[in-house]
Amino acid sequence: MQQLRLFPFKQKEEPPRPKRIKVASWNVNSIRVRIEQFKEWLKRESPDVVCIQETKVKDEDFPVQDFLSLGYNVVSYGEPGYNGVAILSKFRIEDVVRGFEDSPDTSARVISGRILGLKIYSVYAPNAKNLTGDSFKKKVEWYTQFIKHIKNNDSPDEQLLLCGDFNVVSQDYESFDPKHWLCSTVVDPTSRSIFSELLYFGLVDIMRIHTRASPLYTWWDYGQGLEIEKGMRLDYFLTSSALANKVITSKVDRYTRELEKPSDHAPIICELELK
Questions:
Q1: Which residues 6+ apart lie within 8 Å of 55 measured at CB?
Q2: Percent of the chain scoring above 70 in pLDDT
């Protein structure tokens, strides 16, 4: 586990503490490819906090100035061409940590910080190429150590929020076809079982507080995936039970998936009351 210093810039004067905040999470599938699209989205939605996944860029090449100019503080944990996570916030980001102890790989997949008293994680969990190779074994090992980290360092009684792409579909109806090969490693019982340990720990899938019946796809296959609803829900907000009853609204911003050259994921957005 590595401590991450904030980028060496003078943080902007912090706005007054709000009564509620808007938090978003988005697997952008390359921040540099989608930087203009992302900035336009920030202006439209104006989230207070954004957790980003699959930035695919080294920290020194992360477009910090673009976000500073829009009023956001920035922390990132990246690597060239793969993975990468970041947090943007209109408020000060404190106690920033990237990675976690005993992680079975060195990929840039987790960054956390404290904002307005909330501990927030941006998470990009591994996927696997198939169920029989080393990649699936590594996915399970990563999840095992990550959950151990959460249990050792966090509590369901604190203000805790995990955001990101967890590469798991928790229920069959939240994938276009659980028997399709594209879905195999995210609907597999082993993947679901280990993901459910986060819920048993005391975390709550808050997007299901307001919407229970229909699937909440956050990822669609490229090509005609959006038109034929070839989608899955891979992205989640998981909050501590102490924070779950503070949820006001949540949604999938499907509009972004309809843009030219989009990410294959859409952002998820929630609003929370603060103490």
A1: 28, 30, 31, 62, 76, 78, 83, 84, 85, 86
A2: 95
Q: Which of 74, 113, 81 is nearest to 97 (CA)?
A: 113
For residue 258, give the CATH number of its domain. Answer: 3.60.10.10
What is the spatial distance between Cα 261 and Cα 249, in angstroms, rounded to a whole number? 28
Predicted TM-score of the model (pTM)? 0.93
Please give the Cα distance from 89 to 114 (Å, whole number): 10
Can you point out the beta strands (E) in 109-258? Answer: 110-115, 118-124, 160-165, 203-205, 219-220, 231-232, 235-240, 247-252
- CA distance readout (Å), 228 to 74, 182, 267: 37, 15, 19
pLDDT category of residue 6 using cuts at 50, 70 and 90: very low
How far is it, in rounded angstroms, from Cα 215 to Cα 232? 8
Quote the domain boundaries for residue 87. 2-7+19-273
Residues sharing a CB contact under 8 Å with residue 205, sequence separation 6 or more, in sequence order? 170, 199, 236, 237, 238
Q: Give 152-191 pLDDT, tens digit per residue.
A: 999 999 999 999 999 999 999 999 999 999 999 999 999 9
Asked if the structure places residue 13 within a domain, the reply is no
* DSSP annotation of 13: P
Number of domains into which the chain is organized: 1
Place of tokens 């076809």: 177
Q: Is residue 12 part of a domain?
A: no
